């Protein structure tokens, strides 16, 4: 498996369908209040069949190579559900998903789909920034008795807070592409100026320091 090639091709694919937006001059504000020069909407991959095929086949390749013992795929709710379903179909593996909270009716499940104690699970996530939501999913699966082998995700920012949280929770993550690769490909293809790369990296390294905005 050539991860460098997957990183590059995934970055090109996401940029080609405008799933990644760059606005260093007019930053996006995330739900957390963080101002960001970049916004990534991986849901757009689902409506672009060629890109979707690349994403799902690459996730399948990551699971075959990095998590060969995987018995069940579990998507994060809601963005990871479709990717877990399609990748599970490619691999012939069962899939389910984990809600952000317990259902308030019926059986009040948080984990949807059959999961046996001790089963080896890979979590499918679309995007990782600070890592909080995906680690809640990992915790819920571990609490249910699953053995979480790790995460397969489409894109990661590589923020220190996220990396530290993953290490603390002892969770491995393999992403199809990352912030640095996307920034470099975007500059090569003219989506952003070469000098914008430093501003993007400054944001990624310390999101709470907004001095990059005025540069």
Task: Write up what this structure looks like.
- There is one protein chain.
- It contains seven helices and ten strands.
- It is an alpha/beta fold and 215 residues long.
- The strands form three sheets. The chain has a six-stranded mixed beta sheet with strand order 7-6-5-8-9-10, with helices on both faces. Strands 1-4 form a two-stranded antiparallel sheet. Strands 2-3 form a two-stranded antiparallel ribbon.
- A hairpin with a 5-residue loop joins strand 2 and strand 3.
- The chain is globular, with a radius of gyration of 17 Å.
List keywords for this structure.
single chain, 215 residues, alpha/beta, six-stranded mixed beta sheet, two-stranded antiparallel ribbon, 39% helix
Biggest sheet: strands, sense, closure? 6 strands, mixed
Tally of helical runs: 7
What is the oligomer described by this structure? single chain
In terms of per-residue confidence, which ranges show pLDDT below 50 for 5 or more consecutive residues? 103-107
What Rg, in angstroms, do the CA atoms define? 17 Å
